[in-house]
Amino acid sequence: MPLSEEQRLNMIKKRQKILDSAITLFASEGYEGTTIKKIAESAEVSFGNVFTYFKDKEQLFLASVVEPLGTFSEQVLDFNTDAEDPLVELQEMVTKHIQLFAGVKSYLTLVAQVVGQPHRYPAAFEQLDQFHDQLREKISCLIKNGQHKGVLMKQDTMPVATLYTSLLIGIRLNNTDTRYSKIWDQYISPALQLFGPIN
């Protein structure tokens, strides 16, 4: 007998609740410190119910890293490399990124664990590395646009893009607050200086 629409939606919600609990626990307690039992308790589902949605802990860990990356990458990559005014585009991009990174602490803590130990999590690292390459390349193109228009100083664009992405993750990991606050606004202007604006 096929599932009703209500049953299907309930299953989607339950799976997401398990995934959200897993992200939080993997981020705070690491892979070894996180058990399926802890995830089930946090998600308020039975131990066996977790396996309805995920084959094992390894698959759940991979899903915890990779699945949020789709939505996250769409938001992070939402800027125009061919903008008529590259300085305005950079300002808007940095502001959006700062706000976004301020709001996703658990996930980015988990990302930092994977990036810091690529040999332990090769499948998850590969997905994150592809996204990072794509982001750096796109930022590099925006910087080149600004250099071409004479509003950014000439410098090698890829190291600048790499420094910028490193700054974003570093700010997130060094701030203990879990919500967006005024202190994050103070990082926008210094971050913009990385790109070498010509005043």
TrEMBL record:
> Which is one GO molecular function term here?
transcription cis-regulatory region binding
Give me the positions annotated for DNA binding. 35-54
Determine if DNA-binding is one of this entry's keywords.
yes
The record ties this protein, via Pfam families, to: TetR_N (PF00440)
Keyword terms, alphabetized:
DNA-binding
Start and end of every HTH tetR-type domain? 12-72
> Could you tell me which Gene3D superfamilies the record lists for this protein?
Tetracycline Repressor, domain 2
Task: Specify whether DNA-binding is a keyword of the entry.
Answer: yes
**What is the protein name given in its UniProt record?**
HTH tetR-type domain-containing protein
The organism that produces this protein has a lineage beginning with: Bacteria, Bacillati, Bacillota, Bacilli, Bacillales
